[in-house]
Amino acid sequence: MNYSTFTTTDNCVLAFQSSLPLATPTNPSLPPSSTSSSTTNPNTCILLLHGFSGSSAYFTRNTTPLSSSPANHWVVCPDMRGHGRSGHNPSRGGFHVARLAADLRELLLHLRKSNALPNGSPLKVVPVGCSIGAAVVWTYLELFGETSLVADDVELAGYVFVDQAPLQDRAALGLGGTWGAGLAHRGCFDEETMLAAQRAWMAEDAGVRKETHRGLVGECLGYRFAPNTSDSIGVEEAERDEEFFTGISELCDGTWLARLLADHTRYDHREACEGITKPVLVMAGKRSGCFSLEGMGETVRRAKSGGNEDAELMVFESGHWLFYEEPERFNKELLGFVERCTKEKKK
């Protein structure tokens, strides 16, 4: 994978990893045409979107298998604003899911311009939204629509939503209907729990911040949240996993994350799911410390209620970071879904 950057309309530099080498400000001599070869399928892009406090490094077990499969898809993993190597312009805000959705739109345009496809040949993209990454995709669809970039030769061929319910908070009233404890986020679901989470992420004490990052690992790795006798994770491997994920979280500005969290928990994406017309695959972890299978299944139910029969819930044996705990299955199922989406578009 190759790191590259681009600058958004609000002058924020965002980083992303690409399985194809692209021109960068430090290497402008690399022409778009050199990014593809006869063994690469550059018109199909798998876009992996990480979760809250994560980065593109989350997909260390996925990028090579996905990009080196017989189909040779283009794999792109952005560091979302405020995460990883990307900036966040704290003096200008930007701690909103809607801003991240706007960043996604700008990234898609940048990727299309960076790839020398023949005129009239669209870039077919399958976004894979993990955790808050799913919320970013839902918000993108609500703000811009599925076909907003068709004139720019960018097509969204299908969507994968990984371990995220369409509403984090509990809701008793509203047009979206009730949304109780069995459907909402397990730990951050109302004003009180959200404020507690904000205090933890903003803590000045290094020890408290470290425990916050460790707590995230405990919620998101299935073998930590709900261990069982079939787990074969040794002590050393568990320690490496914890160091890996806490190290990624520690790169983030805790105060900025806390403000993003407040915005994220309030979003209700249930109705937005009803407007999705392309194929939908929801991947859910049976041992997720974040959401129940019932809550994550709402995306499929809503898509079908909107007339989309090509929507499926797929359950994994692991947790919230199922792409990390079950990479072989994740990669296989994702490749199959992408092939089906893009082949249907070629008919």
UniProtKB/TrEMBL annotation:
Q: Which UniProt keywords apply?
A: Hydrolase
The AB hydrolase-1 domain is annotated at 46-332
Which GO MF terms does the UniProt record name?
hydrolase activity
Q: Which SUPFAM superfamilies match?
A: alpha/beta-Hydrolases (SSF53474)
| Coiled-coil stretches noted in the UniProt entry, renumbered to this chain | none
Cellular component, GO, one term: membrane
Task: Output this protein's name.
Answer: Alpha/Beta hydrolase protein
Task: Tell me the organism.
Answer: Dichotomopilus funicola
List the top taxonomic levels of the source.
Eukaryota, Fungi, Dikarya, Ascomycota, Pezizomycotina
